[in-house]
Specification:
Shape: globular
Order of helices and strands: EEEHHHHHHE
Strand order of the largest sheet: 3-2-1-4
Number of helices: 6
Largest sheet: 4 strands, antiparallel
Strand content: 15-25%
Structural class: alpha+beta
Helix content: 40-55%
Radius of gyration: 15 Å
């Protein structure tokens, strides 16, 4: 299967990177961004959406319509549905990744409680095994990024139909 979306992250400086996406039809855009918070967030979306095989969250929607800035308004939560739940999970995951005492079952339970504040049940795929798989994928992505020299690009393919791991 052809990639639904090709993502390119180019390391420009210690603080800046270029994010470029290309849809299967050849359209897309490139944006220079601040790295400290935005790169981790974008990679967390990639890990969550890839592991879960999501098509209606940030990258799935970006592959079909709109642009990065349009979908980034309010973190996508304003769009509701799958993307809103994914945004909440990604946000929680970003903070949790730095924790030394990270426990996948506890994290999954905490996020399920958090989602209930919005009257959203946790998705069926959001299990401790899923959280562990996402955490491992993030470890790999962060390693790849750290190994990417300045001026070079880390390329990822977003193919939600080719999920390597489904919990």
């Amino acid at each position: 299967m052809t990639a639904l979306l090709t993502l390119r992250f180019t390391k420009l400086t210690p603080d800046r990177h270029r994010f470029q996406y290309r849809r299967a039809d050849g359209t897309g855009e490139a944006i220079e961004m601040e790295t400290r918070s935005l790169l981790l967030h974008d990679l967390a979306h990639y890990a969550v959406e890839s592991e879960a095989g999501l098509k209606g969250s940030f990258y799935g929607i970006l592959a079909k319509i709109g642009g990065y800035q349009e979908l980034s308004v309010n973190g996508g939560a304003a769009l509701g549905g799958e993307i809103a739940i994914t945004e909440r999970i990604v946000g929680a995951l970003q903070g949790a990744l730095a924790r030394v005492d990270f426990d996948t079952a506890s994290f999954q339970s905490e996020v399920a409680d958090y989602l209930s504040l919005f009257d959203d049940p946790p998705p069926r795929w959001f299990t401790p095994a899923f959280v562990a798989a996402v955490r491992e994928r993030m470890r790999q992505l962060n390693g790849r990024w750290k190994a990417t020299p300045f001026g070079e690009t880390m390329e990822l393919k977003f193919r939600p139909d080719e999920v390597e791991h489904r919990s």
